[in-house]
Structure formats: C-alpha cells, structure tokens
Amino acid sequence: MRPDMMEILRKGCTILKDNNISAPRLEAEMLMAHILECERHDLYLARDWELDEAQKQRYFALVEKRASGYPIQYIINRREFMSLEFFVDRRVLIPRADTEILVEHVIDWASQQNRDLHILDLGTGSGAIAVSLSVFIPQVHVTAVDISHEALEVARYNARLHGVHERITFLEGDLFAPLYNYPDIQLFDAVVSNPPYIPTEDIETLEIEVRDHEPRIALDGGDDGLEFYRRLAEGCADCLIHGGLLAVEVGYGQSGAVKAILKDTGYFQNIGAARDLAGIERVVYAIYNGGVPGGC
User: Fold this and answer.
1) Fewest beta carbons less than 10 Å away: which of 31, 64, 183, 207?
2) Cα 233 to chain center, whole Å?
3) CA distance readout (Å), 267 to 100, 242, 252
4) Is residue 39 a contact partner of residue 80, using CB atoms and an 8 Å limit?
C-alpha cells in the first residue's frame, strides 16, 4: 500500500522543524502542493491522496534541499508580490513585502497625475516593481534596467506572464548607463529603485538563505551600504523632469542618511519617507527640482 499524502506531509514537516525552518508546516505544504501541482488548500480536499514512489522521492528530496537552507521560493519558482505571482530563481533577488511599500507609494503618486507616465526602474531584478506598476497603472510605460542579463531574462518572462511586456522596455547595463545609448529617449516622470543596500561586511552575517543563495550583486551596497543611493541621486539630474518623483527602498536605519544624500545634491525638495506597519521608514522619496534637465 502506498503511503498517503498526509503521512508524508507530516514527515516532511518534522524534517523541516528539526532543521529550524521557522514555518515547517506551511513550507511542507507548499512543497507538497508543488509536487502535486495544486494549491495548498487542495491538499485538505483530497486527504486520501496517495503518492507514487517517484512523487515521494521527489518530495523528500525537495524537503532536504529546503532543510539545507535553500530558499523555498527558488525551489517552487514562485513568489507572491502585490497579490501577483512571480517566477523567481537564483538569477534574481526574491521580492520582499517591504518593496510593496515602494510600489504602493508610486501607485498613489501616479493616481494624482492626469497624464501618461514614463517611469524608470533601476535594478529591476525579477521585474516585480516594473510589472506591478504596469499592472496597476494603466497609463504607464516602464523602462526597466538591470546589469544582469540573466535577471532580465526572468523579468521579461514575468512581464509576459502578466501581459504587460508591451509596456515595458528592458535595457541591460549599470544603472543609468544604458540610457545614454538612446539619445532620443524622453525624460522620466519618476525614477524608482530597490538598490543593493547591505554594507559589504554585513553580508556574511545574513541568514544562510540570503547569504549563500541570493545574488550578491543585488545585495552588496558598498562599504556603508549607501553607494547606490549616491549614484541614483546624482544620475537623476539628467533623466528626471522637473517635478518628477524619485522613490527608493532603504534598509533598516538608513532613511536619515539617504535623505541627507538627496538634500546635499541640491536637486530635490519635499524629501520624505513612507513607513511600514511597524513604523520603520522603508521608502525615501523626493521631488526633483534642481539643475537644468538634459537628455539621458
């Protein structure tokens, strides 16, 4: 007699719990649903479901992989963001809930603009920001840039998955650099970014799921974690319209330093921050109002 699904699920949960996975039951269910190609709630609608030997072996192989510290999002190739499903693998950073605060702020800002919008997403990664903005802001066209060719492959897939690929232009390069290859490109109404912001020396202290498996290029923010914010603040002078929005995600305790960076350029006004549910400032935003704008 083949073992039933619930028995195998309990064993998977025990293995994850014994290896200090914080949500062993949830993740055991996620892996089982992945094996059976169903939703988690379906597991309890078919409690007498029996697994064949191949399914059982595959399930426990994935359980052991997760127990070793490999991120479950990469195992099942799924991550929900802004109530949308995104494909993810080791080529891209796993989207976090904190980044939803950035997207929500830009959506709120866009709702007050009575015109078509052109937004620049720098360091697009999985495309979570660019795709979400395109889904929720009908009048937007997004230019999404990433230095990683592999990350752009994932982002393009996610854009097609959600049917917004025709409203996103993907460019490969380092921050603003690829824009200079297109001298006729228009100025942007907004620049958004979730840049790398972990100080280099702190990366080794991160959880194993992040430290050993997520792309370091998407994590390392330089010696003090602020390198990319300095580059973003200066680069906006060539690419933002007057009155345009700059909005960036920041790490814990970084908002004050990022605000100071923006202020010191002399390019920005109305500098502020959006908080998460715990009251922590997670997004710094400002309005561009300095310099003489030129082409990108």
Assistant:
1) 183
2) 21
3) 26, 10, 25
4) no
Q: Which residue has the tokens 């009048």?
A: 139
- Which residue in 191, 194, 261, 252 sits closest to 226, CA to CA? 261
> CB of 12 within 8 A of CB of 21?
no
The amino acid that residue 154 corresponds to is V
**What does the radius of gyration of the chain's CA atoms come to, in whole angstroms?**
21
Structural domains in the chain, CATH included, are: 5-68 (1.10.8), 90-288 (3.40.50.150)
How far apart, in whole angstroms, are the C-alpha atoms of residue 128 and residue 64? 28
**Cα 162 from chain centroid?**
16
The Cα–Cα gap between 128 and 131 comes to: 5
> pLDDT, tens digit, for every residue of 161-171?
999 999 999 99
Residue 168's identity, in one-letter code, is I
Q: Check the CA dihedral 207-98-217-152 and report its sign.
A: positive
pTM above 0.85, yes or no: yes
The whole-number average pLDDT for the span 42-47 is 77
Candidates 199, 236, 291, 245; CA nearest to 105 is 245
SS3 261: helix
Residue appearing with tokens 């014994």: 18
Q: What is the pLDDT of residues 136-169, one digit of tens each?
A: 999 999 999 999 999 999 999 999 999 999 999 9
Residues 6+ apart with CB under 8 A from 207: none
DSSP reduced 3-state for 48: coil
> What pairs with residue 274 in β-bridges?
283
Q: What is the pLDDT of residue 47?
A: 60
